[in-house]
Amino acid sequence: MLAALLSCCLSAAASPANAAVESARIAAASKSPLGLTLTGIPDIEFSIQRWPRWGSAEENASSLSALKAARSQVEAFEPGELTQPEAADRTLALTRLARRIEMGQAIANADSLLEPLLLKAKQAEDGDEDAALALPGLVQGLIPEAGKQASLGLIPPGGLIAVHLWRLTTHSPNEPASAALRRLADALELADNAEDPEALGPQTYAWRLRWNFGIPEPPEVIVDRAWRRASILKDRTRKLANAIAPGRDPKAVLDELNRDRPKSDEELLGLYHETVQRAVDFPPARRSFPLNLNPLIRIELAADLPQNAAAAFSVGNNTIRVQPTQAYTPPRSLIATLAAHEGYPGHQHYFAQSWLRIILRSRYYENENVMAVEGYATYVERELARMGFYSPREELSYLAGRLRHCLCAIADMGLHSGALTRPQAQRLLVEEAWVAEDRAAKSVAGMLRKPGFILPYWLGMERLLPIKRRTRAALGPRFCEPRFHEALLSFGPVPLEVVDQNIAARMSALGEAGIH
Q1: For 150-206, how does the pLDDT look when each residue is reduced to its tens digit (9 = 90+)?
Q2: pLDDT of residue 43
Q3: Is the previous residue joined to 85 through a cis bond, with omega within 30 degrees of 0?
Q4: Crossing angle (nearest 10°) for helices 202-212 and 392-417
Q5: How remote is the C-alpha of 31 from its chain's centroid?
Q6: Quick count: other Cβ atoms within 10 Å of Cβ 444?
Q7: What residues contact 359, with CB distance under 8 A and at least 6 apart?
Q8: Per-residue pLDDT tens for 255-303?
Q9: Looking at residues 216-242, what average pLDDT do you find?
């Protein structure tokens, strides 16, 4: 069955034989509310993550049944019976269960659609000449229907199906059967193929955004929003560049800032230390992000960082790791943004306040959760700008970085949806974000190598800001920004839709406990 062919593109999981054991464990846990609080729901959700593996049509039906039974058990507990943030764990489990059920149904639909074809192919492999002769006509009829269902998201997109049909043809001893399957694979792949041979194609890309990042909107909707945001950011960047150097071209001003870099490792580390301490001592930040701050953030050199990463926060030892100057050195004006993003009030603050939830969820840290983690770090960059933390030159570098992230999201979606070729994506970054030619080329290569990887740095923040606006509107005069941040961090790395559904209740719970 097609589901067996598709199993390798899903996460590794336990065999369906264990699904019954897991279902029994869930049923037992459901007899007491304590079984579904704090560790209970994350443990159940982790079990869902591991099982079941999609295999034959029978296994797929069993898996769907087990997932639906798990959903019923979790649904049996109303949020009012749980304390916050355990109610968010319930929402998280239901969110992911719904996605897995939907994915399983899509695979089952593909099974049903292609079952006659695969049956004929098997008969042809067994020497049935009539079956081999019937295959081409069957393939011809399936091509438009498979494309139509894939475009509606009812089955996996043609690009994914094609890969596995090709695998099947390499093992088929019957040449007519192989030729027919290759024809279907080619047709499905071409139907979803972008102009750049390394791009995923529109259907496959939309599928990946949906399942890997939890993004339900079509790429064109997000791109339209990104263009509007890019226009605002570019205008602000121009105005600030003109204020810093009246009459000069913004690109020239940014180029000058980019040439001003630390000359030695000692100078680089000193600038990071100075900027981290500056953020820790910044009164507006301390009033807005006041929670149990441990300012003892270490800064150390790390030659093993990816070439395009200037810095990264290491959770285990409370350390910002930075590239040595001989590898990559950021401009002086960008270090304030990098230090805030990686240290306080960014990743260091996030991980320190979310530690318990991160431990519970570390076993299934997924791309959709990166939206929350990186979205929060870019959100605090913006908050510091709003509070007046950056000098004019630092703010200009910050704005240029936001513009670059926004246009990189447009380029990523354009590349993989077939709207942009590689040269066009590079020109977009060079002309609209004032990025250097060599850096633009590296950025586009990274987008093709890791589709969607850049999206959380822009889209995560863009999704977090409306959550804050809605929470403020819901709570009215009871809204408190420090308590909002405390509530936000208490969830740990979860999809932002889960935060959106639970944060007002979480803030109210904190207020009732006397935490302000």
Answers
A1: 877 788 887 767 766 766 666 556 676 677 777 777 887 777 777 787 888 888 888
A2: 54
A3: yes
A4: 120
A5: 35
A6: 26
A7: none
A8: 999 999 999 999 999 999 999 999 989 999 989 987 665 656 789 999 8
A9: 94
Residue 343 is classified by DSSP as: S
Q: How many residues does the chain have?
A: 516
Please say whether the beta carbons of 332 and 271 come within 8 A.
yes
Report the C-alpha gap between 283 and 289 in whole angstroms: 10
Q: Hey, CA dihedral for 87, 89, 91, 93, is it positive or negative?
A: negative
Q: Whole-angstrom Cα distance, residue 396 to residue 401? A: 9
Contact indicator for 392, 361 with CB cutoff of 8 Å: no
- Mean pLDDT in residue range 107-115: 80
Query: How far is 302 from 321, CA to CA, in rounded Å?
Result: 6
* Residue 466: Cβ within 10 Å count: 11
What per-residue confidence (pLDDT) applies to 47?
A: 52
Q: Which residues pair with 201 in a beta bridge?
A: none
Estimate to the nearest angstrom the gap between the alpha carbon of 175 and the chain centroid.
42
DSSP class per residue in 494-513:
--HHHHHHHHHHHHHHHHHT
Both tokens of residue 286? 């301390």
Q: How many helices (H) and strands (E) does the chain have?
A: 24, 3
Residue with tokens 């041979």: 197
Which pLDDT does position 358 carry in this prediction?
A: 61
The pair of structure tokens assigned to 255 is: 């180029």
- What whole-number distance in Å separates Cα of residue 341 and Cα of residue 297? 13
Give mean pLDDT, residues 444-473: 93
Name residues whose C-beta falls within 8 Å of residue 197's C-beta, 6 or more positions apart in sequence.
none
Contact 465, 332 (CB under 8 A): no
Long-range CB contacts (within 8 A, 24+) of 95-103: 95/495, 95/497, 95/498, 96/45, 96/48, 96/49, 97/48, 97/67, 97/70, 97/71, 98/71, 99/211, 99/214, 100/48, 100/67, 101/64, 101/67, 101/68, 101/71, 103/10, 103/211
